[in-house]
Amino acid sequence: MNLLTPQNLTMVEGQVVDAITGNWISNASVKIVYDSLETGTSTDSKGFFSTEFYLSSDKEILVIVNKAGYELDTIKIFAAAGNNK
């Protein structure tokens, strides 16, 4: 049985902003960490990011955001396998 099917393709997207000013943070590194795997992307000029990856089941994942001049920020989110909308 192949667990990596299009039904398991999961998308995480969001926007990274400065917690004090609310300004967008462009070119920030965004890592998604789950199980022993990780994938990454970076924010665009308006702080938005989007990445797709395969999950075999629903689970908590870590989103880690880093940019020079800012504190590293980590958040746990719940990702549903196959949530690619």
- Under CATH, the topology can be stated as Immunoglobulin-like
Uncertain spans: none
Identify the overall geometry.
elongated
Strand content bin: over 45%
Number of DSSP strands? Answer: 6
Q: How many individual domains?
A: 1
Which percent range fits the helix content?
Answer: under 10%
CATH architecture: Sandwich
Structural class: mainly beta
Instruction: Count up the helices.
Output: 0
Level-1 CATH class name: Mainly Beta
Main sheet: strands, sense, barrel: 4 strands, antiparallel
Distance between the termini: 25 Å
Strand order of the largest sheet: 3-2-5-6
CATH superfamily: Immunoglobulins
Average per-residue pLDDT, rounded, comes to 89
Give the H and E element order.
Answer: EEEEEE
Radius of gyration: 14 Å
Oligomer: single chain
Give a verbal description of the structure.
The protein is an all-beta fold and 85 residues long. Helices cover 0% and strands 48% of the residues. It has strands spanning 9-15, 29-34, 37-42, 48-54, 59-66, 73-79. The mean pLDDT is 89.
